[in-house]
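Researcher: Final request for today, and then I'll write up notes for the group meeting. The sequence and the SMILES for NAP follow.
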Amino acid sequence: MLLESKNAVIYGGGGAIGGAVARAFAREGARVFLAGRTRATLEKVADEIRSAGGMAETAEVDALDEQAVDEHAEAVAGEAGSIDISFNLITHPHAHGTPLAEMALEDFMPAIVTATSTTFLTSRAAARHMIRRGSGVILVFGGSGEPLRDYYIGGTQVAFDALESMRRQLSAELGPHGVRVVTLRTGGVPDTIPEGMEGREAIVELIEKQTMLGRTATLEDVGHVAAFVASDRARTMTAATVNVSCGALVD
Ligand SMILES: NC(=O)c1ccc[n+]([C@@H]2O[C@H](COP(=O)([O-])OP(=O)(O)OC[C@H]3O[C@@H](n4cnc5c(N)ncnc54)[C@H](OP(=O)(O)O)[C@@H]3O)[C@@H](O)[C@H]2O)c1
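Model: Predicted protein-NAP complex:
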């Protein structure tokens, strides 16, 4: 197994991508610590993992709360002995559908503030423990994308671009301590769009049409790649972005 004896903290572990990554990490032998604001959704994922024979713990943590993030990381490192992997998969508030020229500042900023603040806080909390051990992996999700021409996404892409900048800076600062930082870049994962949502089919078709492979990444695909990147098999990879877009995004 790829992640045997690794401890992984997954913020947003009760969400679509966070849950899929948690299942994949647990399947590969990691003990996963799911953090989020709603116990019930975290416990649902944790129960599935435990039923399949994996190891999962949950904690209510608001990734915007500096003290809560630090105390949780401290508790995980204290109890488990290490934090080997940290992955922030929380959602960012967004106002889509309004052109930037017409958007209010208070609608533009929340995605950027949440993405950068929580990535800073969660990465910092993990890094402090990883530096002491001289190893670890911090994963980022989203990545840079082409500007969209036919859909208004407000501050969302700006937020993901900011995370790429943080990934570069963190890689440079943490590399000498043996800590890797890698982004997974996606063109959209249709499995995360709720069945029955208005316009779902059109969105899925749009994502599919943009790919070179004529199919899109599934949640399972994302989990497989994340598990590999988090594992020691990928020990050469840092300051890097891994493209999981089926060719929708061109590096
Ligand atoms: N789905 C895609 O195709 C796609 C593509 C590109 C990028 N992304 C990005 O990937 C991330 C995850 O997407 P997703 O589809 O898995 O979203 P999701 O299903 O909505 O899950 C996000 C999780 O984040 C948690 N969360 C939100 N705010 C939080 C906070 N302050 N502290 C702790 N947890 C918080 C939520 O749980 P609580 O509300 O209970 O805390 C939820 O479980 C998002 O940032 C999204 O923009 C997704």
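Model: Residues 105-133 form the longest helix (29 residues). Strands lie at 7-11, 31-36, 55-60, 85-88, 136-142, 179-185, 240-243.
Researcher: Thanks, that's everything.
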